[in-house]
Amino acid sequence: xxxxxxxxxxxxxxxxxxxxxxxxxxxxxxxxxxxxxxxxxxxxxxxxxxxxxxxxxxxxxxxxxxxxxxxxxxxxxxxxxxxxxxxxxxxxxxxxxxxxxxxxxxxxxxxxxxxxxxxxxxxxxxxxxxxxxxxxxxxxxxxxxxxxxxxxxxxxxxxxxxxxxxxxxxxxxxxxxxxxxxxxxxxxxxxxxxxxxxxxxxxxxxxxxxxxxxxxxxxxxxxxxxxxxxxxxxxxxxxxxxxxxxxxxxxxxxxxxxxxxxxxxxxxxxxxxxxxxxxxxxxxxxxxxxxxxxxxxxxxxxxxxxxxxxxxxxxxxxxxxxxxxxxxxxxxxxxxxxxxxxxxxxxxxxxxxxxxxxxxxxxxxxxxxxxxxxxxxxxxxxxxxxxxxxxxxxxxxxxxxxxxxxxxxxxxxxxxxxxxxxxxxxxxxxxxxxxx
Length: 436
Ligand SMILES: NC(=O)c1ccc[n+]([C@@H]2O[C@H](COP(=O)([O-])OP(=O)(O)OC[C@H]3O[C@@H](n4cnc5c(N)ncnc54)[C@H](O)[C@@H]3O)[C@@H](O)[C@H]2O)c1
Ligand SMILES: O=c1ccn([C@@H]2O[C@H](COP(=O)(O)OP(=O)(O)O[C@H]3O[C@H](CO)[C@@H](O)[C@H](O)[C@H]3O)[C@@H](O)[C@H]2O)c(=O)[nH]1
Known about the structure:
Elements: E1 2-6, H1 10-21, E2 25-29, H2 33-40, H3 51-60, E3 64-67, H4 70-76, E4 79-82, H5 97-108, E5 116-120, H6 128-138, E6 146-150, H7 160-165, E7 170-173, H8 177-186, H9 188-191, E8 197-200, H10 202-233, H11 237-245, H12 266-279, H13 285-309, E9 316-320, H14 335-345, E10 349-353, H15 358-361, E11 371-373, H16 377-381, E12 386-389, H17 394-397, H18 401-404, E13 411-415, H19 422-427, E14 430-433
Parallel strand pairs: 1-2, 1-4, 2-3, 4-5, 5-6, 7-8, 9-10, 9-12, 10-11, 12-13, 13-14
Helix pairs in contact: 1-3, 10-11, 10-12, 10-13, 12-13
Bound molecules: nicotinamide-adenine-dinucleotide and uridine-5'-diphosphate-glucose (UPG).
Uridine-5'-diphosphate-glucose (UPG) is lined by residues 123, 153-157, 213, 216, 220, 254-256, 258, 260-263, 265-266, 269, 324-325.
InterPro entries: 6-PGluconate_DH-like_C_sf, NAD(P)-bd_dom_sf, UDP-Glc/GDP-Man, UDP-Glc/GDP-Man_DH_C, UDP-Glc/GDP-Man_DH_C_sf, UDP-Glc/GDP-Man_DH_dimer, UDP-Glc/GDP-Man_DH_N, UDPglc_DH_bac
Binding site for substrate: 154-157, 209, 254-258, 262, 325
GO molecular function: NAD binding; UDP-glucose 6-dehydrogenase activity
């Protein structure tokens, strides 16, 4: 079946490729003509496992086309799926400007006056569907032609294609049987493989997305709270989270303590949910504390560094890992942004290294005498006084630090992800600091 997708970013491009892969005829629209041209040449603008190969496959099969032409996009299908960004406004609210511009474009270019389902796949605050109807009305659109549905996306970066194609569940908030039929057909290739398709009210689907991300963020902050307690009482947070995670009611996932969560989703979505609460006259204090614990982890790491090293002036520090998590080139809200700012502010000199995310990070911080972008791990570790491991890339987990740091005077290593083998490092003369 045919579908139009607006926004060729992490969600839109992955969704487009995955839906084309299972046989649908996908038209992917973006306002960025350079991105569109790249996609048409099978060059992926983002780094994701297997993406380039699958992109080539669906382009050759002519099941995916990318374009900037909204007119084509509107005419292509009754399914109009919005996957544009919803970043945080300065007041913490989700910025719906990009969503609105797509809605306006759909209504303006619906020359054939065909019935359309406008699908919120972007993460939006609960209640956005009613706003969309108001926007349509405000520009003279005929409300009888439009149904708004919510179909939130739960993929993780780094595992995006896999997650899209093997979802734990597909959530669709839609009211008409026409929409239910179209969504059932769209997702049949996944439901036939066992993925549950949950139809809900539109508001429930919107709320499910906000609730899921906030719950996962809260779980991480809970583990980080336990890390702080563990340090005080001589417990090992890894053992504690393993011990509670084996209880199936709690579950082992998302209990990895460390520097805290970053990325383009959790920080903004938790913030937006808190704002939703405020607008409803509700204080979602649990989520405020979730963000506070998250910020405190970064401060706690900085305290460990300054307590161990003293003045950072004239110290050179290796910072390993710039992406917000492994297997992605995404540096949005990455803890590395905060750490680099803090460390430079204290006059440290830095060697930065990441296997994939360096070009994206370089857009925020240009190279300088105090900021060296290393060409490989050995280059990053040459002549440093301390190592901070910030992103748990396999390369960092399995590195032979003893051999790579032969000339290091005192071997300080700060493991911001609790991912390294502390015993082996200590045996090799390192002064090891973890997070709990
Ligand atoms: N990144 C993730 O892992 C993830 C997962 C689930 C949900 N989400 C949500 O999905 C949405 C998109 O996130 P993303 O990370 O893919 O964003 P992104 O920034 O990677 O991509 C957004 C794309 O939309 C394009 N765009 C902007 N205005 C447009 C318009 N009027 N018409 C067509 N294209 C337009 C931009 O050029 C860009 O290519 C957000 O709401 C996000 O919260 C993201
Ligand atoms: O136990 C854990 C798990 C994760 N993290 C951190 O949490 C952040 C987010 O990680 P992850 O959830 O794996 O990545 P995202 O790609 O941001 O995916 C989240 O955000 C997406 C956007 O909404 C959702 O679709 C996904 O379901 C949700 O997992 C990263 O900084 C991780 O390092 C931890 O600190 N401890």
